[in-house]
């Protein structure tokens, strides 16, 4: 009998192993047929082979590609034909140099046209920009503008924590809603996992409409967990908007002195017609989470010029036909002639962006990149470091920020183009997250951002190639192994 049981058990085990092997083979074929980049395809195959069982679950939850299937229908509130017409008119003005008082160069019309065509991003003029380079300035400005709201407040954040600063903002939102101001809040369900159901109940009872973006709940845990809303947008009365890297949590204001020190980030406050571009992104996301379409023209007030800055607000995500922000960054890199300064907390670029950076440096462009020496994500830090040697060999200057954790996502090029928003220099921001970034075409703004970069550089340590090569071998092994999974992080 024991022999029979043994044979029976062996057959069951054989069938299970055969079934598992067939399932892995099917998934591998699916991955190959998706025609992703070879690097991402190989990475997923490695995960499946090196992590039996667990790798299969990772793919089911995190690996499926829904970009072409458009998991979210972008049913905007805007007439697309009219937007294309308006945008084209602006491009003609830019080409002819008719934007009074603005020193934008004619060769920036290429990137303007690109962002129009790949994401319907409208170019706007007559804007003013205020940089908010620390938590104190950012939250003081936000609290002030929230208190001044008269008609509506629209907020969209990846992380919203109910700590000290989160509590202050929550109370203002409740008070404004009770006073008759329309208040709407979107938070990402994964990024704001700490928020309890009672938070939303309390907000709704006060008249604040609050929703989670793409909720993830068992047994509905699907690959939606892999497509997060990483945007940080605020629109108040259509007259002022905020965009950048700051979320709502105490650490963004006070830092984390136990782990990495101060939190160094960049946000901008915008006044002018570009605020309506932020509004359009918010209302499109609002339609998705609430199934409510807000079309009142009052949400898009006509604003008088407040300065002469030209801005395009670009949104991209898994619902997009093109990775618009990545393409805009790529175009900026390849058009650089004098300098290109980049600050990013996570550096895991696509092959095309990496190649463009090395090509620019080898062409004589002054390319500098600042990344944090300490990070809030250990694996991504290892991945970021795995790219440093080839950057240094191409002539790129790489710096480790020493003063704290650098979370700013900024690029400045040739005193002409400034880029700031929520998108990191990594695969996730380029291809999987819902992101929003401002492209600003203005000399004074670029010079201000350049000075901020140089200040960060003074608080950083330059990485020298000979010393980097001589590091312990085990560090290189860990970084190289982590890089295998960089397309998946």
TrEMBL record:
Pfam families: PLDc_2, PLDc_N. One of its GO terms (molecular function) is cardiolipin synthase activity. It is an enzyme of class 2 (transferase). Keywords: Cell membrane, Lipid biosynthesis, Lipid metabolism, Membrane, Phospholipid biosynthesis, Phospholipid metabolism, Repeat, Transferase, Transmembrane, Transmembrane helix. It comes from the Bacteria. It is a multi-pass membrane protein. GO terms for biological process: cardiolipin biosynthetic process. SUPFAM superfamilies: Phospholipase D/nuclease. It is found in: Cell membrane. Residues 225-252, 402-429 form the PLD phosphodiesterase domain. InterPro entries: Cardiolipin_synth_Firmi, Cardiolipin_synthase, CLS_N, PLD-like_dom, PLipase_D/transphosphatidylase. Catalyzes the reversible phosphatidyl group transfer from one phosphatidylglycerol molecule to another to form cardiolipin (CL) (diphosphatidylglycerol) and glycerol. HAMAP family: Cardiolipin_synth_Cls (MF_01916). This is Cardiolipin synthase.
């Amino acid at each position: 009998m024991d022999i029979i049981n043994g044979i029976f058990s062996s057959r069951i085990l054989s069938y299970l192993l055969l079934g598992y092997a067939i399932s892995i083979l099917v998934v591998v074929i699916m991955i190959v047929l998706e025609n992703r980049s070879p690097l991402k395809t190989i990475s997923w195959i490695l995960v499946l082979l090196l992590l039996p069982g667990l790798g299969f679950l990772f793919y089911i939850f995190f690996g499926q590609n829904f970009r072409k299937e458009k998991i979210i229908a972008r049913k905007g509130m805007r007439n697309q034909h009219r937007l294309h017409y308006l945008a084209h008119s602006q491009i003609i003005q830019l080409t002819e140099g008719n934007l009074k008082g603005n020193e934008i160069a004619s060769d920036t019309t290429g990137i303007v046209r690109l962002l129009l065509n790949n994401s319907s991003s409208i170019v706007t003029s007559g804007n003013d920009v205020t940089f908010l380079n620390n938590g104190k300035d950012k939250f003081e400005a936000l609290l002030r503008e929230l208190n001044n709201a008269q008609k509506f407040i629209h907020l969209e954040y990846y992380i919203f924590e109910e700590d000290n600063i989160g509590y202050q903002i929550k109370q203002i939102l409740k008070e404004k809603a009770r006073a008759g101001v329309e208040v709407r809040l979107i938070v990402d369900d994964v990024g704001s996992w700490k928020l309890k159901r009672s938070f939303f109940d309390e907000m709704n009872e006060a008249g604040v409409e609050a929703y989670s973006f793409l909720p993830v709940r068992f047994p509905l845990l699907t690959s939606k967990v892999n497509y997060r809303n990483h945007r940080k947008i605020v629109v108040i009365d259509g007259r002022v908007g905020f965009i950048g890297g700051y979320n709502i949590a105490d650490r963004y204001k006070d830092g984390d002195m136990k782990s990495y020190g101060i939190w160094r980030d960049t946000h901008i406050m915008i006044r002018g017609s570009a605020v309506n571009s932020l509004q359009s992104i918010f209302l499109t996301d609002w339609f998705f989470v609430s199934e409510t379409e807000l079309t009142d023209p009052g949400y898009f007030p006509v604003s008088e010029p407040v300065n002469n800055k030209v801005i395009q607000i670009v949104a991209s995500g898994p619902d997009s036909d093109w990775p618009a922000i990545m393409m805009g960054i790529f175009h900026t890199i390849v058009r650089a002639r004098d300098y290109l300064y980049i600050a990013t907390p996570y550096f895991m670029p696509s092959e095309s962006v990496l190649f463009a950076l090395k090509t620019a440096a080898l062409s004589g462009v002054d390319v500098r990149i600042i990344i944090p020496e300490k990070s809030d994500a250990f694996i991504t830090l290892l991945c970021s470091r795995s790219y440093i040697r080839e950057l240094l060999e191409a002539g790129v200057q790489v710096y480790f920020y020493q003063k704290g954790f650098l979370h700013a996502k900024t690029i400045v090029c040739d005193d002409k183009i400034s880029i700031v928003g929520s998108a990191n220099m990594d695969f996730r921001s380029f291809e999987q997250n819902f992101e929003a970034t401002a492209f600003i075409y203005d000399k004074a703004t670029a010079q201000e951002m350049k000075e901020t970069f140089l200040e960060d550089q003074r608080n950083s340590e330059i990485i020298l190639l000979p010393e980097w090569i001589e590091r312990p071998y085990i560090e290189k092994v860990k970084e190289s192994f982590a890089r295998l999974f960089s397309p998946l992080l």
